[in-house]
Every structure is written in structure tokens, then in C-alpha cells.
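ok so for the tutorial part 2 we go from a plain amino acid sequence to predicted C-alpha cells. step 1 is just haveing the sequence, like this:
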Amino acid sequence: MSRFWQQFATGGWLTRERVRIYSLLMGGICAAAMIGWVALSDGLIDRNGKPIGTDFSSFYAAGSLVLEGKADDVYSPAAHYAREQQLFGPDTPYYSWLYPPFFLLVATPLALLPYWLALAVWQAAGFALYLAVIGAILRRARATDAVAALWLPVAAAFPAVFVNLGHGQNGFLTAGLLGAALCLLRPQPVLAGILFALLAYKPQFALVIPLALVAAGRWRSFAAAAVTVVALVAAATFAFGLDIWSGFAASAEMSRKLLLEQGNVGFEKLQSAFASVRMLGGSIPLAYGLQAALSVAIIGGTVWAWRKPGDDAVRNALLVLATLLASPHTLDYDLMLLGPAIAFMVSAGVAGGFRRYEISALAAAWVIPLLTRSIAGMTAVSLGLLISLALYGLVFARALHHRDAASAADGRIAQV
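step 2 — the prediction. this is what the C-alpha cells look like for a chain of 416 residues:
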């Protein structure tokens, strides 16, 4: 038993060969399942009566309404659902459009294409961005470490990839933009700020990033992000009119009440502290209270870590995980953000050595996106939330270690 625990603590069990085999097995099984799912569909409709790409059907319907000059109808559930029924049949479930108006600038060009092609372009482009960013994060590590050199099959077979593909969602884009912005923060701060701003299409993820930039004194990135957000709002207003923002505000309120508080989307699909409380039968005020307490703690820890110079990979991993944890509206496909978080942690570990439990926690974080929704449905326990918390704790401990080591070094220099 002691040998098992030692292997678990040090991560010695996760050899290069096992990483390779696990990645190939996971990728092969998930790819085969997805091919079978598509092969057994009836045109655009899968065996469960849902459009292939489920949530993407909402994007496509919204874009098609804009092409007909009916942008305001995007935020009318009745009109939007009528368009989905027109495209996918009268029995299709409703997939709502809850994004800010400037995300229509992405959805509308896609609606110019046939649905299958639009879905393929959307997912292929996002997947390519995600892989490019993971490769960039691990650029140094994969040149010196044999396990990190296997980054491509590990990143491609990451189970969250298949969750995102099944939903037709934007997890690739979210992970790619945030990871790229963090990689570019030092060499190209203005471009990094622009990429941060593009994440505004998911405003629930904007709680931590601005505060971290301010804490680190990244004023050029902060200013670039602010200007870009203003430009996005102006572009959407010019394209679709001022009234569209009232429609967005109404949809955001509907999302809060129905999808978040009442769990119409399914609490097992949400990966937040708020959803965990609701899933366990807690009241809405209790859920908000615990989520607020966690968010304040997470934001405080992240701002503290970003205030002074430290290991960029550690701070970046901390910010990615904080972005996931601080939001009450984190969904299973948003666990794509664990991809860059894992990559930043691997980069830090290869450069400075892995600490106890880190490797095993990273392995768990890699596989959990495949399991979290089904296990939450059976047990009311969100593994996605738990592993995100565990990783945050490990990364924060590493940040503390770096700060203590730096303070000790400064003390020795002062004595000399």
C-alpha cells in the first residue's frame, strides 16, 4: 500500500509509454463513438432527435436570422425557436441564443454555408487554434522532456475535446483565446489585450482577468482590452442597432433565472459551486452565497499571485483555473480550459520539477471531463468542480513556494 501511495504522490506510475497508450486508447474510443453517432443519424438529426452539433444549431439559426435582416429576432425565444424548427424539424428541442450581439459577427458568416460545412469549419478552426496554443505553451518543455514531447496526441485526445465536439460549442475558441493571450502577454502585450477582449463573448469569464492585469501592472494589455471591447460593442451596435442590447439584457436575465437558478440546462452539466449546491438541494441564496465566497477567495488568491514577479507558467495556470472557478455559469464543455491549465502546469513542472501529487492530479484533470456529467447525474457530485479546486490548490501552493524561495534569496543577498 505504501508503494502505491508513493507512486501516486510522485506520479511515478505515469510513464511515457502509459501516456502514449492512454492517449491513443482514449482518442480511438471517443473518435469511434463520434463516428458511430454521426453515421446513425438521420440527416441533420441524431438518434435522440437532436440536431448534430446540438448547441451549434442555435448559432446557425441566429446567423440565418441576421442574414434576413431579423437580428432582433435572435433574442426572441419564439422567433429563434421557430427558425430552429424550420431548419431542423418541428420536433427539435430549443437551443437558446444567450451571447452578446457582437458574437453574431461570428455566427452570421457561418450561416452563409450549408449546416454541415458550417459546423465542420467552426469546429476545425477552433480545434486548430486550441492545438496551436497548447503547442506554444509547451514549446520549451517538449524540446527537453520525453513525456511532454507527446503533447500532440495527449492534447488531441483530451476528453473535453469530444465533449465540445458533441455540443458543437465554443470551448476550443475559449481555451485558444485565453491560452494565446497569456502566451503573448510579455512579448506582445497589446495583441494579448485584444485576445483577452475577444473573450467578452462569454462575459461570465471576465471576473478575474481584468483584476489580474491590474495587479500585475499590465496596463498596455488592460488598455488594449478595454478599447477592443468598446470597439466590439460599437461594431455590433452599428450593425444591428441599439435596441438589440435590450434583447440581450432580457436574454441574460432569462438565462440567470431558468438555466442557472432553476437548472433547466441540468445542474449536472454545470461545473460550478453554485450548481453543486443546487444539485444537492440547497436554496438559491445559499448557492449564491457559497459561490460568492469561493469567487472572492479565488480572485484574492489570483490577484495576490499576480502582484509580484513570479513564474509565468504558474501564474498563467492559476488565472485559467480561477476563470473556471469564479463563474457560477461554467458548463461541461468549458472544461476545455483545463487544457491550457494542464499545459501551463506541465511547463512549470518540467522547468522546476513536479511537486507531490501534481502529476496524478494532472492525469485526473485530463480524464475527468469525460466522466463529470454522468457521475454528477448519478451522485450529485461534480468531479469537474473538485478537480478544478484541487488543481488550483496545487498551483497556489507552488506560487507560495516560489514566493518563499524568492524572499529567502533576497534575504541572503541582503546579508552579503
